[in-house]
Design goal:
The structure is a homodimer of 91-residue chains. Chain A is built from five helices and three strands, in the order ααβααββα. With 91 residues, chain A is of the alpha+beta class. Chain A has a single domain, classed as Orthogonal Bundle (Arc Repressor Mutant, subunit A), CATH 1.10.10. The first copy, chain A, has a three-stranded antiparallel beta sheet. Chain A binds a DNA duplex (30 and 30 nucleotides) through helix 4.
Amino acid sequence: MNAPDVALICRALGDTNRLQIVELLTHGEQCTCVLLEHFSITQPTLTHHMRVLTECGLLKSRKEGRNTYYSLNCETMSDFREFIAGLVCGK
Amino acid sequence: MNAPDVALICRALGDTNRLQIVELLTHGEQCTCVLLEHFSITQPTLTHHMRVLTECGLLKSRKEGRNTYYSLNCETMSDFREFIAGLVCGK
DNA sequence: ATAACACATAGATTGCTGTCAATGAAAATT
DNA sequence: AATTTTCATTGACAGCAATCTATGTGTTAT
């Protein structure tokens, strides 16, 4: 994973709401309606955040009936963790 | 380290130039003048980026003569790495 | 003292971002 | 078929952020 991709992900995680969304999704996929209960934002704003997180590759989405389920993209998350893990002092 | 602090750091790392600055500083402290050679931005813009990185706790600075030397704040970096390392699928 | 150097600060501008209300679209329910 | 539910899209707005030029400040060299 190269620097521009990482910067894009960091920018996505640079919003408190989005960071909390990712934290919630570490426990498994969730639909928008359930996620919405955890925040004090409107549904369009949440959908906007989900879009940002999806476009940088962090999330996957799956439609089932009238629900949309979001989950972490494990591969991207793994690559990102690896990059950050490499940012050590005195390399 | 709590979520708001992490979000602040992520936002700081969400700029390609700043991410590269942090990568450069993993090899040790550097003064502004040397860092500037790696980028195609003006000196005030670089100083602005150093300020952002310092204010979120990622960098430390030290003045020696007419030079300012920047280095990673190892403790903050460590806490941040640990937080990101905890963002795993299927927790 | 004067000049040169390294960096910070101020002010302006342009573009992006988080948020909302309003609306659209597709599926399930009645 | 009509209504309800769930989510996406649109358009707007206020605030922030990246960048620049111009200038200020402290330090070293001449």
